[in-house]
């Protein structure tokens, strides 16, 4: 499963929340992030798919996607702490949607 536009919007929102504005221009960073994420729409989604979320294949896809996202955020000047906050919040949003769909 690929990153959806909803995934991208959630990541953009979380980035804006956790990375404060600076002299470089926050809107520019957000636009660069959106472009970078749109170029990576072939990344597997971090959401649980119909497959077993505990399988080795799913875990490897999750790790690869997470590392690529960390690299994108880092290249835009986010600190490791900010990156963890972004991905933690995104994970909560994604898993909340999975539970809502399952019920």
Explain what you see.
- This protein is mainly α.
- The chain has one domain (5-102).
- Helix content is 69%, strand content 0%.
- It contains 4 helices and no strands.
- It has helices at residues 5-18, 26-39, 56-75, 80-102.
- Helix 1 packs antiparallel against helix 2, helix 1 packs across helix 4 (80-102) and helix 3 crosses helix 4.
- It is globular, with a radius of gyration of 14 Å.
- Mean pLDDT is 72; it is low at 98-103.
Keywords:
103 residues; mainly alpha; 4 helices; 69% helix; globular; disordered C terminus
* Strand percent estimate: under 5%
Mean pLDDT: 72
Order of helices and strands: HHHH
First-to-last CA distance: 21 Å
**Biggest sheet, in brief?**
none
- How many separate domains make up the residues? 1
Oligomer: single chain
Strand element count: 0
Helix content percent band: 55-70%
In DSSP terms (H or I, runs of 4 or more residues), the helix count works out at 4
Structural shape = globular
Poorly predicted ranges? 98-103
The computed structural class is: mainly alpha
> Taking Cα atoms only, what radius of gyration do you get, to the nearest Å?
14 Å
């Amino acid at each position: 499963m690929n990153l959806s536009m909803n995934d991208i919007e959630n990541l953009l929102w979380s980035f804006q929340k956790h990375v404060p504005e600076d002299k470089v221009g926050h809107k520019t960073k957000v636009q660069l992030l959106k472009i970078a994420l749109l170029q990576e729409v072939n990344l597997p989604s971090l959401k649980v798919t119909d497959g077993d979320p505990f399988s080795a294949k799913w875990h490897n896809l999750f790790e690869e996607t997470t590392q690529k996202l960390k690299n994108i955020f880092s290249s835009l000047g986010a600190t490791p702490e900010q990156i963890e906050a972004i991905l933690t919040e995104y994970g909560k949003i994604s898993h909340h949607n999975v539970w809502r769909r399952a019920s």
